[in-house]
Specification:
Elements lengths: L15 H11 L1 E2 L8 E6 L6 E5 L6 E6 L3 E7 L1 H5 L6 E2 L2 E2 L2 H15 L20 E7 L2 E2 L2 E2 L5 H14 L9 E6 L8 H4 L5 E6 L10 E6 L2 E7 L1
Parallel strand pairs: 1-3, 8-11
Antiparallel strand pairs: 2-5, 3-12, 4-5, 4-8, 6-7, 9-10, 12-13, 13-14
Helix pairs in contact: 3-4
């Protein structure tokens, strides 16, 4: 197989406004263009490159778990999983934030929810050695006046569930949390800049590079992860 080079950002952070939207547009859309919370699993083989991404984050939460064997990425809508509307119901019973979270996040991680949301449990064996997790959430408060994160109890439950499924993620440094300043959903910056966008890229055949395998995760103006082997 002919070697090739992964397209990487060359001017951080300024160049991300051009590079990241282009890469997300070429990647497999983790949201699957639906209004449900979703998750995607990809094995990292020696035969094909992989690219997962999404854009338009303006209050949603993203979970990304990466090892040298695979990547798992999940997207959770704020108003579906953390803060349902007061009139929302499930089986005729009002949806509280805890119940919505249990049904769309915790249940999804352990059991999966149809083909839109693959279970992490099903693929846990791919993340047993040197896995790294990133939980990307909106921030609250500005400047020197932070406020209590209203979703912290739920996010702690998410972390506990993931580490229960993948014990390797209890290692020091294996779990990482990243906060972002959420824009309004109508903001043009969600379409024209790197704001609210994330992409994972993997290529097993990097041109003129040793080691050949390269994997990386980029969010807004940051490179969150890079691994070569």
């Amino acid at each position: 197989m002919a070697k090739r080079a992964m397209v990487l950002p060359t001017n951080l952070p300024a160049g991300m406004d051009e590079w990241l939207p282009e890469q997300v547009a070429r990647a497999y859309d983790v949201t699957k263009q639906c209004t449900k919370s979703t998750s995607v699993f990809r094995a990292l083989s020696d035969r094909r490159a992989e690219s997962l991404g999404l854009s338009g984050l303006c209050g949603c939460t993203v979970l990304a778990i990466i090892s040298r064997e695979a990547v798992f990425m999940a997207h959770y809508f704020e108003d579906r999983s953390f803060n349902p509307n007061s009139e929302d119901e499930l089986d005729g019973i009002p949806l509280t934030p805890q119940r919505a979270f249990d049904e769309t996040v915790i249940k999804g991680l352990y059991e999966g929810l149809s083909h839109y949301q693959r279970s992490l449990s099903q693929f846990a064996g791919h993340f047993q050695r040197a896995a790294t997790a990133f939980l990307i959430t909106p921030s609250y408060g500005t400047g020197n006046r932070p406020v209590r994160d209203p979703y912290r109890p739920l996010l702690s439950q998410l972390k506990h569930a993931v580490q229960d499924i993948v014990p390797d993620l209890t290692r020091t440094g294996a779990w990482n949390e990243v906060q972002y300043n959420a824009l309004d959903i109508s903001s043009a910056d969600l379409d024209d800049t790197a704001r609210g966008s994330i992409v994972f890229k993997y290529d097993p055949y990097q041109q003129d590079v040793y080691p050949e395998h390269l994997a990386g995760l980029w969010f807004e103006y940051q490179q969150l992860y890079v691994d070569k082997w």
